[in-house]
Specification:
This protein is mainly alpha-helical. The chain is built from 18 helices and no strands. The protein has helices spanning 5-31, 36-43, 47-75, 77-97, 101-129, 132-164, 168-171, 174-185, 202-218, 225-247, 257-260, 262-292, 297-304, 306-324, 327-345, 354-380, 388-416, 428-455. The longest helix has 33 residues, at 132-164.
């Protein structure tokens, strides 16, 4: 039976809405890095404070991700996506007009909260609109939009900063946000409602958010007593959260999946380590290339784009190979390649060849491609159909937690070396030393990740 014209039109609109929702958050997450030096000069902020521009976005995204997944199931995926898009647009407007650094950070928090709703809703509306026979193709296009956002962020961001300064980074996304909201408002057939079954557990949301806040706020402030206290409080709250989820018949985050299969548990832990070992690299290299090597934002963005471009090119191949061979082994290979790329970055200094940096980015991009797609395949292939939603949400949470932890480690290293409040170009040798220290930690995390990835064993059948 041929689909009706109205049904085909609705599917096209849903696909465009999903692509915009999947593109914008990763684009802003990567594009803002090339504007950090200009922000630092305008607001007189050091490297550690500038790291908060990236960290606050990821922190808000991480805190809101689990409640967003549950809430959208209850109240409607498309409605939640629209709410998230509106909040994200308010964050963009606030960032573009921010007169002070604290208000800029508040705007980034709004972007992160809105991005959580957009991230969850973008995939969910595709699943609702497309039948199983068409779903794999459109989900593949959706993943390509995520990688496109990451790839274009440094390049397009550098061009925008060169053209009119860092504030243009916040003005430009308002146009696709407005178009997305207009498409949602006129979507053929209207916006479907959620299941309405169950409730959003406010206590679990509070424990999840406060516990995560303590962990992410405490790590960069170690070994100060306030950092240790925040870390301990966060760990206790997350322990209470985990206990509540394991006892609940309607959990916010189903942690029981970690106890049912080694592949699921170790694959998620490997994802956490992989993103923890890679996300802070772009932040450090953006400051290094512009403040120490003297490159323009455009040229720095082009160099930083090597890694996501290689990842985008090889991810489809890695995904196809993971259908033929053990995805766990391929993901372990990818983790090893990522570690090799990080090892190459240890040779960077104030006079080293930029070709070496581009080569390191290419190796990391290849590692990312051979890790991400096979690891996702391993996770989703280890659970039954009824747990696919929880597995997808948990993987997204591992990604954001890893990215947030990566920035927290960078801030901790900068503070321990006394560079947190120093302008990034004031002590080039000290900055290079701190950067190498971070790359060494990241390479160590990659090595640990290889062993965790191999520990998952052979592919397990879904139960």
């Amino acid at each position: 039976m041929e689909p009706s014209p109205s049904d085909s039109r609705r599917k096209r609109w849903v696909l465009w809405i999903s692509l915009a929702a999947s593109f914008l958050p990763p684009f802003m997450a990567s594009a803002v890095n090339v504007g950090l030096p200009d922000m630092g000069r305008e607001f007189a902020q050091g490297a550690s404070s500038l790291g908060a521009v990236a960290s606050v976005f990821l922190f808000a995204l991480a805190v809101c991700l689990a409640p967003a997944g549950k809430g959208l199931d209850l109240y409607g995926h498309a409605r939640g996506l629209g709410t998230g898009c509106g909040v994200f647009a308010l964050g963009c407007l606030g960032g573009a007009l921010a007169p002070t650094f604290p208000l800029l950070l508040a705007a980034r928090g709004l972007q992160g909260a809105g991005g959580a709703l957009m991230t969850v809703g973008g995939v969910a509306i595709l699943t609702e609109a497309f039948p199983p026979g068409e779903r794999g193709r459109v989900l593949g296009v959706n993943v390509a939009a995520v990688y496109l956002g990451i790839s274009l962020g440094p390049t397009l961001g550098g061009l925008l900063v060169d053209l009119a300064g860092w504030r243009l980074l916040f003005w430009v996304p308002l146009l696709p946000c407005g178009a997305t909201l207009a498409l949602l408002a006129t979507l053929p057939g209207g916006l479907p409602r959620g299941t309405g079954r169950g409730v959003l557990d406010g206590v679990s949301c509070g424990l999840f958010g406060l516990g995560l806040s303590g962990l992410l706020w405490g790590v960069p402030r170690l070994p100060e007593p306030r950092g240790a206290a925040a870390l301990a409080a966060g760990a206790i709250l997350w322990g209470v959260f985990a206990r509540r989820q394991l006892r609940s018949s309607n959990p916010l985050l189903d942690l029981r999946l970690f106890l049912r299969g080694r592949a699921y548990a170790f694959s998620n832990l490997a994802a956490l380590l992989h993103y923890g070992a890679t996300y802070g690299v772009t932040f450090l290299l953006s400051l290094f290339l512009q403040e120490i090597r003297g490159l323009s934002p455009r040229d720095a963005g082009l160099l930083l784009a090597v890694q996501p471009v290689v990842q985008t090119l090889f991810s489809p191949l890695a995904g196809r190979l993971s259908d033929r061979f053990d995805p766990g082994r391929l993901a372990s290979l990818g983790m090893g390649l990522t570690g090799a790329g990080l090892g190459l970055l240890l040779f960077q200094d104030t006079r080293s060849s930029l070709a070496l940096l581009a080569a390191a980015g290419a190796v990391q991009g290849l590692g990312f491609a051979f890790f991400s797609s096979p690891n996702t395949n391993a996770i989703l292939g280890s659970v039954g159909r009824g747990d696919l939603g929880q597995a997808s949400a948990t993987l997204a949470l591992m990604r954001v937690l890893g990215q947030s932890s990566s920035m927290a480690l960078v801030a901790a290293v900068l503070n321990l070396r006394g560079l947190g409040a120093v302008p990034t170009g004031a002590d080039p040798l000290g900055m290079v030393g701190a950067m190498r220290g971070c790359f060494g930690l990241f390479a160590g995390l990659s090595v640990l990740g290889v062993f965790l990835s191999l520990a998952r064993g052979a592919k397990e059948p879904a139960s």
